[in-house]
Amino acid sequence: MTNAVQDKVIKIIAEQAMLDTSEVSIDMLIEDIGLDSLGLVEAIFSIEEYFEIDIPFNANDPAASEFDVSKVKTIINAIEELVSAKVN
Amino acid sequence: MKRVVVTGQGTINALGIDVASTIQAMSESRCAIGQMEFTDINRLNIRIGGQIKNFDPKEYFERQELSLYDRFTQFAVFAAREAILQSGLIFEGELSHYSGVILGTAGGGLQTQDESYRAVYQEGKNRVHPFIVPRLMNNAAVSHVSMANNLKGPSFTVSTACASSNHAIGQAFHLVRSGAAQVMITGGSESMLCFGGIKAWEGLRVMSHDGCRPFCATRNGMVQGEGAAIFVFEEYEHARARGALILAEISGFAMTSDAADIVMPSIGGARRAILAALKDAKMNPEEIGYINAHGTGTVANDKTETSAIKEVFKGHAKNLMVSSTKSMHGHLIGGTGAVELIACIAALKDGMIAPTVGYEKADPNCDLDIIPNHARDKKVSAVMSNAFAFGGLNAVIALRSI
């Protein structure tokens, strides 16, 4: 399950950033991947669609969201929580 | 006042996906109206239109661009590439600050609205794509043409139904003529061929089931088209100094409002616009050799337009060539005047007088030389383009050869 979420999220982020999945690692900062604000919003939309979850992300002030989008890892962790909350 | 010339043009419409193929099709009197294809067409009574079928946006745009481009934006950005390439202009430094974009559209991102409403209302989806707003906004095409070409001057969208393009072109003309801008990218774009777009027009009962036959006794309504045409308007001395190829001169422009009826046209409003455009261009009526008519194929428009032309041109009306190219590419609503300006420029530049195709039978209420069915080869030195919109808003452009 963990790996499935991680692989899918990396795949979506890499696709948005026009990178190969091998070029995106979980320790990377989103800003270093080259995703602009619109790209990030679109990635979050794709993640919501795929996992059928609602992500509490506020594009006005991403830092103020309870959803931490600074790193690939923080995104994956938050999505894992949302997915497991849905399952439970 | 500065002189304003055209130094580039580009288009995509049902007749062709560039200017050369469009003019070729017009000169061969080809009709591009046929059966349309899109979701739920079987729920429509009107199924014909001038739909662009040989255009795969993936060939011309990146995936990220496509996620932000409604079809009307794709058309505008695509046609702008051709126009700007022909002009040879590169917008950097000062020039980019004094160059802008003014385009017409009536429906804006209507495809995006149609698809998104279908998703939330019909399919019950609760999550929508995050870019619906930037895709559907009426200024999206202008903004993307501006971004793609580094155009940082005055830029906005004009929306006056079927006169949108002519009003937009008029604003661009005024900005260059007054010296407020050195170069303006102008024209219009429309993409209304989708279920909601056609359904709404169907309700008005002005659409034809079987073809667009402007000025013909058997005409029974309009047929929609889609596409864009984009032009580069440049200050004359600027164009000459760099040795640019000049396609035509924009000599005059006028706008009037009927202040009468929300859908029925008026002879007075049309006549005043034509007269004022001639005056603005300092032209005698006898100079005009060709008019690209609004010619929608509705009973009301074609009769009214004929009367207005006869009232202005009097004895010269019988020598005038008047055609409606909507019979070939359909009515592009907010983009129509732009595509029709291609025909005006072809008349001035090449003496190619585009025909009114589909003509079957003379109507005594429309007794003009409407170039029935076959294009004509005839030199003209001044032409005019009419647009008379729903809402009674009229915009007429006068051009000269140079």
Description:
The complex is a heterodimer of chains A (88) and B (402). By secondary structure, chain A is mostly helical. Chain A has helices spanning 2-16, 30-33, 37-51, 72-87. Chain A has one domain: Orthogonal Bundle (Non-ribosomal Peptide Synthetase Peptidyl Carrier Protein, Chain A), CATH 1.10.1200.10. In chain A, helix 1 packs antiparallel against helix 3 (37-51) and helix 1 crosses helix 4. The model of chain A has no long low-confidence stretch (mean pLDDT 90). With 402 residues, chain B is α/β, with parallel strands linked by helices. Chain B folds into two domains: 4-241, Peroxisomal Thiolase, Chain A, domain 1, CATH 3.40.47; 253-400, Peroxisomal Thiolase, Chain A, domain 1 (3-Layer(aba) Sandwich). Chain B has helices spanning 19-27, 63-66, 71-87, 93-97, 110-122, 132-136, 140-149, 164-178, 195-203, 236-241, 267-280, 299-313, 326-329, 336-350, and strands at 4-13, 34-35, 48-49, 99-104, 156-158, 183-190, 227-235, 248-257, 290-292, 321-323, 352-353, 376-377, 382-388, 393-400. In chain B, the strands form three sheets. Chain B has a ten-stranded mixed β-sheet with strand order 5-4-6-7-1-8-14-13-9-10, sandwiched between helices. Chain B has a two-stranded antiparallel sheet with strand order 2-3. In chain B, strands 11-12 form a two-stranded antiparallel ribbon. The radius of gyration of chain B is 20 Å and the shape is globular. Chain B starts with a strand and ends with a strand. The interface between A and B is small, with 10 and 7 residues.
